[in-house]
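Feature request, filed as a ticket because there's no other form

It would be nice if the structure record came with a short human-readable summary line next to the tokens. Right now we just get the raw output. Example of a typical job, pasted below so the devs can see what we mean:
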Amino acid sequence: MSDKKTIKDIGRRHFLRNSAVTGVAGAGLASGFGAGALLNSQQARAASENGIEIAPGELDEYYGFWSGGHQGEVRVLGVPSMRELMRIPVFNIDSATGWGITNESKHIMGDSAHFLNGDCHHPHVSMTDGSYDGKYLFINDKANTRVARIRLDIMKTDKITTIPNVQAIHGLRLQKVPYTKYVFANAELPIPQINDGRDLESPDNYFTMFNAIDAESMDVAWQVIVDGNLDNTDADYTGRFVASSCYNSEKGMTLADTMRAERDWVVVFDVDAIEAAVAAGNYETLGDVDVPVLDGRKGSKLTRYIPIPKNPHGVNTSPDGKYFIINGKLSPTCSIIAIDKLPALFDGSIEPRDTVVGEPELGLGPLHTTYDGRGNAYTTLFIDSQVAKWNIEDAIRHYNGEDVNYLRQKLDVHYQPGHNHASLTESRDADGKWLVVLSKFSKDRFLPVGPLHPENDQLIDISGEEMKLVHDGPTFAEPHDCILMRADQLNPSRVWKRDDPFFAETVAMAKADGVNLEGESKVIRDGNKVRVYMTSIAPQFGLTEFKVKQGNEVTVVVTNLDQVEDLTHGFVMVNHGVSMEISPQQTSSVTFTADKAGVYWYYCSWFCHAMHMEMTGRMLVEKA
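Raw output as currently delivered:
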């Protein structure tokens, strides 16, 4: 058997070096890479001794997925280096990849494609038996009431669902066991039911809902109406219970009204009971929406309301599966709810407050809690600009009257932290190595860039007895939250598979036109519609010229025949607002109107070859 490697087997570096066309340019690139490999041993040793320094060419231990905040995207970082690796467009328009421009992305965005904004808050990775399985990442859009799913093998959004009957999806978490069957999503802001102009001035008739989305189909499985509003949420490790905080039990319409009560509550949902009610047909539908809607207001068998002080915010399940910890926000306390007491609560044998087994006082403005897997919790204190490390069992002992100090340490962070997230902490596998704190203000931490400041993501080493702040990193437009998973829990594709469903509709269109995408470049004319099929292989498009008439609707379909990883092509039609990415073995398409007669060049926008600049073609538009 021959040892000779095919072009499919070798990396881009070797492709560039060995390409006959690149000549000296290829050799220059090769020598550059070689020089990079000559990092001296002293530098490498210093990098390895510093917990956050990853030497050139070395890989991070964790993937971090950051919500993109008001950008409507997800950002991928390596941890602990905090290097940004990729941005995944979700609810936004992205001219680099063509997201929101290509036909494939518009199909995924569906009817909501006309929205030009998004507000991403909570990214969460799918699970099997309480451990991250690396299949999907889910993210919410508070601004336009949507939930999206990202395939982690290709790092592309593949489904977006608009949630009916509600507004402002905020809290989002996943069913942990036996697998992620449901995505649980809270609608934060109550609205009239049905919201068609009725009850505008009658807030008593405003309600919101807890929503369950089928993780595979991304259809809304069911909705549960609740009293008050809903904020954050988390699921247990039995598959039965989900808890959601409510900061507006008053159902106030103004800031002052939402702060009247000294206690609000946490709503606990019994998923088993809800599924049984749906199966028995014990639900209604609203208007022309056929999603089952169940009544979970006070007195329902589907829910229980546990009083909590005051305006609670974050809900976080401990990795041992024992506790929901609810963060007080306007109270200096966190409330510890024992999950093993919830069956008795639903049976009616104990009172709601009997489920609270601890309420440690931590400081001003507790928002979110994360864990190290060693029995310690880490809570952000927004007003104090600190992270409090505390021991859960000691806090429970203190609540029971023992003289014990549950606080372990308070660390200053900069400034006003919101979410925090420790490595693997949403799973059973919390390993207590790194803690990311997402601070809302940066003030004096970075060079000034005008009135709009960056946020500040800070990395803290929690592997020892004391927290150590080791890194500041500016970020744009309030990333809000993140999640960390081990690199070996994810296996991204390096090259597209030709049968990938992401572009299946485009492949079907080509088949109907009798076009072989892997071997033909061809123009199909269908009345006023023109479909232009072309291949691309570095450094040339399969068609370097095509002709249309003014006013034609033009669909350009490009198939990248390169099999070398990282050899991405782009397609830009000048002066037509058209741009898209075509990675190796991918097919992408875009539709536009050739509205002006003349010559219009198209070119490859992703550097692919030493002759990249010459990878061009012309669209000739004849006058109508």
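Something like this underneath would help us a lot:
The first helix runs from residue 12 to 18.
Residues 434 and 461 are 5 Å apart (CA to CA).
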